[in-house]
Amino acid sequence: MSTAEPIRYAADWLELREPADARARSRELLSPLTAHLAHASSAAGGTAVHDLGCGTGSMGRWLAARLPGPQRWVLHDRDPELLALAGAGMPDTAADGAPVTVRTRQSDVTRLRAADLAGASLVTASALLDLLTADEVDAFAARCVQARCPALLALSVVGKVDLDPADPLDAELTDAFNAHQRRVTDGRRLLGPDAPGAAARAFRLRGAEVHSRPSPWRLGAGEEGLLRRWLTDWVAAAVEQRPELAPHADAYLRRRLRSCAAGGLRAVVHHSDLLAIPAAPGGTPA
Ligand SMILES: C[S@@+](CC[C@H](N)C(=O)[O-])C[C@H]1O[C@@H](n2cnc3c(N)ncnc32)[C@H](O)[C@@H]1O
Known about the structure:
Helix content is about 40%, strand content about 20%. By secondary structure, it is an alpha/beta fold. A hairpin with a 2-residue loop joins strand 6 (about 185) and strand 7. Bound molecules: S-adenosylmethionine. S-adenosylmethionine binds next to helix 1 and helix 3. S-adenosylmethionine binds near residues 21, 126 and 131.
Protein backbone atom coordinates (compact mmCIF):
# COMPACT_ATOMS: atom_id res chain seq x y z
CA MET A 1 0.00 0.00 0.00
CA SER A 2 1.27 3.46 -0.95
CA THR A 3 2.21 5.76 1.94
CA ALA A 4 3.93 8.72 0.24
CA GLU A 5 2.08 11.23 -1.92
CA PRO A 6 3.52 11.13 -5.46
CA ILE A 7 5.68 14.15 -6.32
CA ARG A 8 3.66 16.71 -8.27
CA TYR A 9 5.24 18.75 -11.03
CA ALA A 10 4.32 22.42 -11.28
CA ALA A 11 2.91 23.46 -14.63
CA ASP A 12 4.93 26.70 -14.52
CA TRP A 13 8.19 24.72 -14.12
CA LEU A 14 7.35 22.52 -17.13
CA GLU A 15 6.44 25.65 -19.11
CA LEU A 16 9.68 27.39 -18.12
CA ARG A 17 11.80 24.47 -19.28
CA GLU A 18 9.91 23.73 -22.51
CA PRO A 19 12.03 25.97 -24.83
CA ALA A 20 15.30 24.52 -23.44
CA ASP A 21 13.84 21.02 -23.77
CA ALA A 22 12.85 21.71 -27.37
CA ARG A 23 16.36 22.90 -28.25
CA ALA A 24 17.95 19.91 -26.47
CA ARG A 25 15.88 17.08 -27.97
CA SER A 26 17.86 15.01 -30.45
CA ARG A 27 16.86 15.65 -34.05
CA GLU A 28 19.22 12.89 -35.19
CA LEU A 29 16.87 10.24 -33.83
CA LEU A 30 14.05 11.51 -36.04
CA SER A 31 15.52 9.87 -39.18
CA PRO A 32 15.53 6.26 -37.91
CA LEU A 33 12.18 6.93 -36.20
CA THR A 34 10.39 8.32 -39.26
CA ALA A 35 11.93 5.59 -41.46
CA HIS A 36 10.56 2.96 -39.09
CA LEU A 37 7.13 4.59 -38.83
CA ALA A 38 6.82 5.00 -42.61
CA HIS A 39 7.34 1.26 -42.90
CA ALA A 40 5.18 0.21 -39.95
CA SER A 41 2.23 2.62 -39.54
CA SER A 42 -1.06 1.56 -41.04
CA ALA A 43 -2.02 3.86 -43.91
CA ALA A 44 -5.63 4.00 -42.74
CA GLY A 45 -5.18 4.72 -39.04
CA GLY A 46 -1.97 6.71 -39.21
CA THR A 47 0.52 6.78 -36.35
CA ALA A 48 -0.74 6.00 -32.85
CA VAL A 49 1.53 7.60 -30.25
CA HIS A 50 1.30 7.07 -26.47
CA ASP A 51 3.12 9.76 -24.48
CA LEU A 52 3.74 8.50 -20.94
CA GLY A 53 4.08 11.05 -18.12
CA CYS A 54 3.13 13.76 -20.60
CA GLY A 55 3.04 16.64 -18.08
CA THR A 56 1.71 19.68 -19.93
CA GLY A 57 2.40 18.02 -23.31
CA SER A 58 5.84 19.39 -24.20
CA MET A 59 6.93 16.21 -26.01
CA GLY A 60 3.81 16.09 -28.17
CA ARG A 61 4.07 19.77 -29.11
CA TRP A 62 7.63 19.13 -30.27
CA LEU A 63 7.18 15.79 -31.99
CA ALA A 64 3.72 15.90 -33.59
CA ALA A 65 4.74 18.78 -35.83
CA ARG A 66 7.88 16.89 -36.92
CA LEU A 67 6.20 13.62 -37.91
CA PRO A 68 4.37 13.33 -41.22
CA GLY A 69 0.92 11.80 -41.70
CA PRO A 70 -2.20 11.50 -39.56
CA GLN A 71 -1.51 10.92 -35.88
CA ARG A 72 -3.58 9.75 -32.92
CA TRP A 73 -1.97 10.76 -29.64
CA VAL A 74 -2.89 9.25 -26.29
CA LEU A 75 -1.48 11.33 -23.45
CA HIS A 76 -0.95 9.55 -20.11
CA ASP A 77 -0.27 11.17 -16.75
CA ARG A 78 -1.40 10.54 -13.20
CA ASP A 79 -1.90 14.28 -12.61
CA PRO A 80 -5.32 15.35 -13.95
CA GLU A 81 -4.47 19.07 -14.01
CA LEU A 82 -1.36 18.58 -16.14
CA LEU A 83 -3.26 16.17 -18.34
CA ALA A 84 -5.96 18.77 -19.01
CA LEU A 85 -3.32 21.34 -20.03
CA ALA A 86 -1.61 18.77 -22.27
CA GLY A 87 -4.85 17.80 -24.00
CA ALA A 88 -5.70 21.43 -24.70
CA GLY A 89 -2.24 22.40 -25.93
CA MET A 90 -1.45 19.82 -28.62
CA PRO A 91 -1.08 20.92 -32.26
CA ASP A 92 -3.89 19.73 -34.50
CA THR A 93 -1.78 19.22 -37.62
CA ALA A 94 1.28 17.14 -38.46
CA ALA A 95 4.42 18.19 -40.37
CA ASP A 96 2.57 17.78 -43.68
CA GLY A 97 -0.75 19.25 -42.52
CA ALA A 98 -2.36 15.84 -41.82
CA PRO A 99 -4.73 15.76 -38.83
CA VAL A 100 -3.53 15.12 -35.28
CA THR A 101 -6.11 13.93 -32.75
CA VAL A 102 -5.61 13.72 -28.99
CA ARG A 103 -7.07 11.71 -26.11
CA THR A 104 -5.98 11.87 -22.50
CA ARG A 105 -5.77 8.98 -20.06
CA GLN A 106 -5.23 9.47 -16.32
CA SER A 107 -3.11 6.49 -15.33
CA ASP A 108 -0.09 5.26 -13.43
CA VAL A 109 2.39 4.39 -16.16
CA THR A 110 4.19 1.91 -13.89
CA ARG A 111 1.07 -0.25 -14.18
CA LEU A 112 0.95 -0.17 -17.95
CA ARG A 113 -0.16 -3.50 -19.46
CA ALA A 114 0.57 -4.84 -22.93
CA ALA A 115 -3.15 -4.37 -23.74
CA ASP A 116 -2.81 -0.62 -23.04
CA LEU A 117 -0.38 -0.44 -25.97
CA ALA A 118 -2.49 -2.48 -28.39
CA GLY A 119 -2.30 -0.81 -31.80
CA ALA A 120 0.40 1.65 -30.70
CA SER A 121 2.95 2.71 -33.33
CA LEU A 122 5.20 4.57 -30.89
CA VAL A 123 5.61 5.13 -27.15
CA THR A 124 7.26 8.34 -26.01
CA ALA A 125 8.34 9.56 -22.59
CA SER A 126 10.27 12.68 -21.77
CA ALA A 127 11.99 13.49 -18.46
CA LEU A 128 10.28 10.46 -16.93
CA LEU A 129 12.73 7.54 -16.73
CA ASP A 130 14.70 8.84 -13.74
CA LEU A 131 11.49 8.62 -11.67
CA LEU A 132 11.15 4.87 -12.25
CA THR A 133 12.77 1.86 -10.61
CA ALA A 134 14.90 -0.77 -12.36
CA ASP A 135 11.99 -3.24 -12.32
CA GLU A 136 9.60 -0.64 -13.73
CA VAL A 137 11.96 0.24 -16.59
CA ASP A 138 12.49 -3.45 -17.29
CA ALA A 139 8.73 -4.12 -17.34
CA PHE A 140 8.21 -1.08 -19.57
CA ALA A 141 10.79 -2.36 -22.09
CA ALA A 142 9.14 -5.79 -21.98
CA ARG A 143 5.69 -4.27 -22.74
CA CYS A 144 7.04 -2.27 -25.69
CA VAL A 145 8.88 -5.24 -27.16
CA GLN A 146 5.83 -7.47 -26.62
CA ALA A 147 3.73 -4.91 -28.52
CA ARG A 148 6.55 -4.52 -31.15
CA CYS A 149 6.31 -0.83 -30.48
CA PRO A 150 9.34 1.49 -30.67
CA ALA A 151 10.05 3.84 -27.78
CA LEU A 152 11.48 7.35 -27.90
CA LEU A 153 12.72 8.16 -24.39
CA ALA A 154 13.88 11.77 -24.30
CA LEU A 155 15.69 14.03 -21.88
CA SER A 156 16.80 11.49 -19.31
CA VAL A 157 19.26 12.96 -16.83
CA VAL A 158 22.68 11.33 -16.84
CA GLY A 159 24.04 12.83 -13.60
CA LYS A 160 26.52 15.28 -15.12
CA VAL A 161 26.45 19.06 -14.94
CA ASP A 162 29.12 21.52 -16.17
CA LEU A 163 29.04 24.99 -14.67
CA ASP A 164 31.13 27.86 -15.99
CA PRO A 165 32.86 29.35 -14.06
CA ALA A 166 33.59 26.24 -12.00
CA ASP A 167 33.28 26.29 -8.20
CA PRO A 168 34.97 23.96 -5.68
CA LEU A 169 31.54 22.86 -4.38
CA ASP A 170 30.18 21.78 -7.79
CA ALA A 171 31.34 18.16 -7.52
CA GLU A 172 30.03 17.62 -3.98
CA LEU A 173 26.64 19.11 -4.83
CA THR A 174 26.45 17.02 -8.01
CA ASP A 175 27.12 13.85 -6.00
CA ALA A 176 24.51 14.78 -3.39
CA PHE A 177 21.95 15.65 -6.09
CA ASN A 178 22.58 12.33 -7.87
CA ALA A 179 22.22 10.44 -4.57
CA HIS A 180 18.90 12.26 -4.06
CA GLN A 181 17.77 11.12 -7.48
CA ARG A 182 18.63 7.52 -6.55
CA ARG A 183 16.76 7.75 -3.23
CA VAL A 184 14.29 5.23 -1.91
CA THR A 185 10.81 6.71 -1.73
CA ASP A 186 7.72 4.82 -0.68
CA GLY A 187 9.73 1.59 -0.83
CA ARG A 188 10.86 2.27 -4.41
CA ARG A 189 14.55 2.84 -5.28
CA LEU A 190 14.51 5.41 -8.09
CA LEU A 191 16.99 5.00 -10.93
CA GLY A 192 17.84 8.69 -11.32
CA PRO A 193 20.84 9.04 -13.63
CA ASP A 194 21.16 5.25 -14.01
CA ALA A 195 17.89 5.14 -15.94
CA PRO A 196 19.17 5.62 -19.52
CA GLY A 197 21.70 2.78 -19.13
CA ALA A 198 19.09 0.53 -17.54
CA ALA A 199 16.60 1.24 -20.33
CA ALA A 200 19.18 0.61 -23.08
CA ARG A 201 20.14 -2.72 -21.46
CA ALA A 202 16.51 -3.78 -20.98
CA PHE A 203 15.68 -3.16 -24.64
CA ARG A 204 18.90 -4.70 -26.01
CA LEU A 205 18.40 -7.79 -23.88
CA ARG A 206 15.11 -8.28 -25.70
CA GLY A 207 16.64 -7.92 -29.14
CA ALA A 208 15.72 -4.28 -29.82
CA GLU A 209 17.96 -1.93 -31.77
CA VAL A 210 18.92 0.97 -29.49
CA HIS A 211 20.10 4.41 -30.66
CA SER A 212 21.30 6.89 -28.05
CA ARG A 213 22.18 10.58 -28.49
CA PRO A 214 23.14 13.37 -26.07
CA SER A 215 20.46 16.01 -25.46
CA PRO A 216 22.00 18.57 -23.10
CA TRP A 217 20.41 21.78 -21.93
CA ARG A 218 22.85 24.61 -22.70
CA LEU A 219 21.87 27.51 -20.48
CA GLY A 220 23.46 30.92 -20.45
CA ALA A 221 22.74 34.60 -20.78
CA GLY A 222 19.11 35.18 -21.76
CA GLU A 223 17.88 32.14 -19.80
CA GLU A 224 18.35 33.48 -16.30
CA GLY A 225 14.81 32.48 -15.26
CA LEU A 226 15.33 28.80 -16.02
CA LEU A 227 18.94 28.82 -14.78
CA ARG A 228 17.89 30.41 -11.46
CA ARG A 229 15.02 27.98 -10.90
CA TRP A 230 17.04 24.90 -11.93
CA LEU A 231 19.99 25.91 -9.73
CA THR A 232 17.77 26.63 -6.71
CA ASP A 233 15.97 23.26 -7.02
CA TRP A 234 19.25 21.43 -7.71
CA VAL A 235 20.88 22.81 -4.55
CA ALA A 236 17.71 22.18 -2.49
CA ALA A 237 17.63 18.50 -3.54
CA ALA A 238 21.34 18.13 -2.75
CA VAL A 239 20.81 19.61 0.74
CA GLU A 240 17.71 17.49 1.36
CA GLN A 241 19.91 14.48 0.68
CA ARG A 242 22.88 15.73 2.73
CA PRO A 243 21.66 18.32 5.29
CA GLU A 244 25.23 18.85 6.57
CA LEU A 245 25.96 20.67 3.27
CA ALA A 246 23.43 23.42 4.11
CA PRO A 247 25.74 26.20 5.39
CA HIS A 248 28.14 25.94 2.45
CA ALA A 249 25.34 25.31 -0.02
CA ASP A 250 23.46 28.49 1.04
CA ALA A 251 26.55 30.61 0.41
CA TYR A 252 27.17 28.75 -2.87
CA LEU A 253 23.64 29.41 -4.07
CA ARG A 254 23.88 33.13 -3.23
CA ARG A 255 27.17 33.37 -5.18
CA ARG A 256 25.74 31.50 -8.12
CA LEU A 257 22.51 33.54 -8.24
CA ARG A 258 24.50 36.81 -8.15
CA SER A 259 26.62 35.61 -11.04
CA CYS A 260 23.47 34.47 -12.89
CA ALA A 261 21.82 37.88 -12.41
CA ALA A 262 24.93 39.51 -13.86
CA GLY A 263 24.76 37.21 -16.92
CA GLY A 264 28.04 35.56 -15.91
CA LEU A 265 26.95 31.95 -15.39
CA ARG A 266 26.59 29.17 -17.94
CA ALA A 267 25.44 25.60 -17.32
CA VAL A 268 25.34 22.46 -19.39
CA VAL A 269 22.92 19.96 -17.86
CA HIS A 270 23.56 16.67 -19.61
CA HIS A 271 20.72 14.38 -20.71
CA SER A 272 20.36 11.59 -23.21
CA ASP A 273 17.68 10.61 -25.72
CA LEU A 274 17.15 7.00 -26.61
CA LEU A 275 15.25 5.35 -29.44
CA ALA A 276 14.57 1.62 -29.12
CA ILE A 277 13.16 -0.30 -32.07
CA PRO A 278 12.05 -3.86 -31.28
CA ALA A 279 13.04 -6.61 -33.68
CA ALA A 280 10.53 -7.87 -36.24
CA PRO A 281 9.43 -11.50 -35.90
CA GLY A 282 12.28 -12.55 -38.24
CA GLY A 283 14.87 -10.97 -35.93
CA THR A 284 15.64 -7.64 -37.64
CA PRO A 285 14.32 -4.28 -36.31
CA ALA A 286 10.56 -4.11 -36.98
C1 LIG B 1 9.42 15.78 -15.08
S1 LIG B 1 7.76 15.72 -15.59
C2 LIG B 1 7.95 15.62 -17.36
C3 LIG B 1 6.70 16.03 -18.10
C4 LIG B 1 6.77 16.00 -19.63
N1 LIG B 1 7.00 14.67 -20.13
C5 LIG B 1 7.83 16.96 -20.14
O1 LIG B 1 8.80 16.50 -20.76
O2 LIG B 1 7.67 18.17 -19.92
C6 LIG B 1 7.29 14.07 -15.17
C7 LIG B 1 5.83 13.79 -15.46
O3 LIG B 1 5.56 12.40 -15.26
C8 LIG B 1 4.38 12.24 -14.51
N2 LIG B 1 4.53 10.96 -13.78
C9 LIG B 1 5.53 10.61 -12.94
N3 LIG B 1 5.36 9.36 -12.52
C10 LIG B 1 4.22 8.90 -13.11
C11 LIG B 1 3.51 7.67 -13.07
N4 LIG B 1 3.96 6.65 -12.34
N5 LIG B 1 2.39 7.55 -13.81
C12 LIG B 1 1.94 8.58 -14.56
N6 LIG B 1 2.55 9.77 -14.63
C13 LIG B 1 3.69 9.93 -13.93
C14 LIG B 1 4.30 13.46 -13.62
O4 LIG B 1 2.99 13.73 -13.18
C15 LIG B 1 4.85 14.54 -14.55
O5 LIG B 1 3.83 15.10 -15.34
